[in-house]
Description:
By secondary structure, the protein is α/β, with parallel strands linked by helices.
Amino acid sequence: MPTLSEQLSLEQQAILTAGHDMWATAALPEHGLASIRFADGPMGLTGGRVDERDIALLTPCGTALGASWDHSLVYRIGQLIGDEARRVGVQAVLGPNLNLPRSPLAGRAFEQFSEDPQLTAELGSQWIAGVQQRGVASVAKHVVCNDSETDRRGMNSVVDESTVREVYLWPFEYAARKGVWGMLTAYNHLNGTPCAEHAQVLRHWLKDEVQWDGLLMSDWFGTRHGIRSIEAGLDLEMPGPSRHMGEKLQPHLRDGMIRPENLAQAVDRVERLANRVHAPAPAPCSYDPLELLEEAAASGLVLLKNHDKLLPLKADDTSTLAVIGPNAKVPCYQGGTFAKVALSPSTPTVSQALEDHFVSAGWTVETALGVQPDYRLPPLTAFDLRAANGEQGLDVSFFDFPTSSQPIHHEVRYTSSMVWFKEMPGIGSLLQLKGSASIETSTTFTPVHSGVHRFCIGGTGEATLLIDGQPCLNYDGVALDGDIMGKLMQGAHSSFVRYLYAGQAISLKLRMNFGASLAHGLWFGCEPPDQADLLDEAVALAKRVERVVLVVGETPDAGLESVDRKTTYLPAAQIELIEKVCAVNANTVVVINAAHAVDTSCLTNAGAVLMAWYPGQQFGVALAKVLSGEREPGGRLPITFASREEDYPAWSLTPDCHGDLHYNDGTRIGYRSFAHKGVMPAYSLGHGLSYAEFAYEHFTLHGQGVDDLGITVTLRNTAQRAGKEVIQVYLQGPGHESYIRLAAFSAVWVEDNETIEVWLPLPRHCFEEWRDGRWSLVVGNHIVHIGRSVSDHRLQTCLSVSDGGDVKIL
């Protein structure tokens, strides 16, 4: 049977290399080709509107899943994502993120599994397999070396070839070999070439060398030159309509600029993906989604410290508990990218979940805020807002002329930011807009406390804020270009302050005039007045109770597209809160709700410390059960926590004056550099305490060569309760320039006083390096470390690898 490309003219083929609209590919029903509908991921399914109305399930972030070190769990989360996609009619999910957080400042690190390429590769491929088992495509992102956000469209990652292949491309190569159906190219340049035009990566390595048969597509608005992209191996430009590929290629189809076989390959790969996702639906899976999300959240919670076995909390007849902290009231469930998921309004906060759980167990529970959340742009929705009809929210009206008084469309929204791609209700096409149009939001705002309020507005046009009908603040935004997605999420704004009185409602109106553009956005917020007594109230409460759970961390706008962090320190007000609470109550459990390595020097006096990451919508329920001992704190660190910021092998993510960001750490990413330099971190990769205790009794090495090698580890739970252990195997290669690397791992559940044997394969790849343009065995003696982390080894052996791949134990 002829392929689709063989049935089409060159002009028809070209059309299929660009999307049809913002989220879908073109269809040719007369040739049996259906459209493919995409949605952003990877923590859940975002809707096409990318706003608060598209409610979906929210999983833990990539780093939290990485902290589980659990193949099976991540596979089941992938299945849940696949089922969510099928529920809303989506055929392909943009995820997972297989980039690596080489610096703790990386703004989007929360989406990434680990600093280790093998851990990322294996867990990422389990997520992919779970999604695709449900008949939905996974589109792994972002190929390649898109490990930072600063100037991501213009910057050039300067990386030597061995480092690209051994570290940053390896998770994608692994996914390709395991059968991922799609990949998405990065915005950045790699060694001077835009990733969407990088023939060595796309065509030569992925398509030719690995012989991967999936679809290569651009990130949204990520192409710059259609001919160079199609020739390099890019199959599809998104979004549509075409900007550089698609019909824009037609004038060059017969001038020798585009090889027909490259165009045909792109079309056939689009067809292959369409056939895969439109195959008959698989049998439904049987699971409780909320139970799975709770399990996943608990499995990622890392118990960093547990002095005198403070956890799990034990109750008696007079047990008292304080739940304190900004993230108890306003948890950070997820980051602030365009993959942000709208949560169900019934999702409990951490404070609500802990209070419900512990009160039912006989505890007396009190709460305190301590300090205000540390927002970049404080949300207006933190206040009581009322639309004209009395409904909670804002009136949003659209006008076809700035001077119009009669809206052409109206809706009620409950949000602090709005974005529109390509089209706007009532306005139609934003690109084809003639002259200017206008949008207006209005609401009745009731302050909770008297004092100075700081109002913020921003957008992509000329915006004016009116309070009680009087103009108070202007913002002169501009039409978007360059990094469109990033600029929409950065939330640049103007602000002013006004004294308001508690309970006295005011009228807020924000009007923005705008012109033609690919996209538009409008955002606004209000910071409440400082409450000097918040800290004192929290410290007084901590002093009079037996136990404290102090929840601190980030806000949902801390991790953004196009923005990297400036520090690993928690906000100064939170550090003061931690130190003062711990000073008056040694039985304080500090829960850190942040998705990157943080400075832990302020935690010296904490009784216990839990790293929670962004744990998804079941954060509160899972945390309550971990604190009470009903669930195990199942996480192990997937990244390294340094004792000092200057110890990180990669720090600044700001390109130099030439736009270059040099990967000077080479293949020694993260923990590899710490081990090589002999620098002891605060907490090592793989670290995490359990409520159970384990003895590593012995091991057996199986196999005669690198193609059939494995280890059996005998593990005994010496505790009186069941628990989870993560067995980790590390290799130290020959020579003083070698580095330690993770080779294998397995998360296991062991009943109390039970002894089990665990099989861990040692793949050939862990004995290879990229040398002279190919994978080559590292010949010589390799030390094998088996243990609980990269710095906690319980068993050890040494083996020799020959030129031919034979292995001998020394």
